[in-house]
């Protein structure tokens, strides 16, 4: 079993990114100066469809935003999380309920119990 606290090797990351087409980005900020915005914009430039998941906004980067993963009205392959560690466990639980196969946490975001 892979170590939940170590990133996959480059080949595994490459394979994952080649297999996905649509990425739900939890915590995607409408502020272009925030890291989540820059990463999501880059993902779009690489050809991925990005689905913003953030309450209180209607749209980010030209895409309809949803308040929660369970509200997203279209299929997605990967969840990219831009939230602090205390919000990870409920997101992991939601991903498991929804059958999401891959979750991408940003560097430094660790939740040992959720792993």
How are the strands of the biggest sheet laid out side by side? Answer: 2-1-5-6
Question: Got a strand count?
Answer: 6
Main sheet characteristics: 4 strands, parallel
Shape: globular
The share of residues in extended strands comes to 15-25%
Summarize the structure.
By secondary structure, this protein is of the alpha/beta class. Helices cover 28% and strands 18% of the residues.
What is the secondary structure topology, with strand pairs?
Elements: H1 10-19, E1 22-26, H2 35-45, E2 49-53, E3 59-60, E4 63-64, E5 78-81, H3 88-98, E6 103-105
Parallel strand pairs: 1-2, 1-5, 5-6
Antiparallel strand pairs: 3-4
Describe the structure.
The chain has 115 residues and is of the alpha/beta class. Helix content is 28%, strand content 18%. The chain has three helices and six strands, in the order αβαββββαβ. A four-stranded parallel beta sheet has the order 2-1-5-6, with helices on both faces. Strands 3-4 form a two-stranded antiparallel sheet. β1, α2 and β2 form a beta-alpha-beta unit. The relative contact order is 0.18.
From the structure above, extract its key features:
115 residues, alpha/beta, globular
């Amino acid at each position: 079993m892979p170590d939940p606290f170590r990133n996959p090797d480059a080949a595994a990351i490459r394979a994952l990114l080649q297999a996905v087409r649509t990425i739900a980005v939890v915590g995607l900020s409408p502020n272009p100066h925030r890291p989540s915005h820059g990463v999501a914009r880059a993902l779009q430039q690489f050809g991925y469809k990005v689905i913003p998941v953030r309450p209180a906004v209607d749209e980010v980067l030209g895409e309809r935003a949803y308040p929660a993963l369970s509200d997203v009205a279209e299929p997605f392959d990967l969840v990219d999380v831009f939230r602090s560690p205390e919000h990870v466990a409920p997101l992991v639980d939601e991903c498991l309920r929804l059958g999401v196969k891959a979750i991408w946490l940003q560097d430094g975001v660790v939740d040992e119990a959720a792993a």
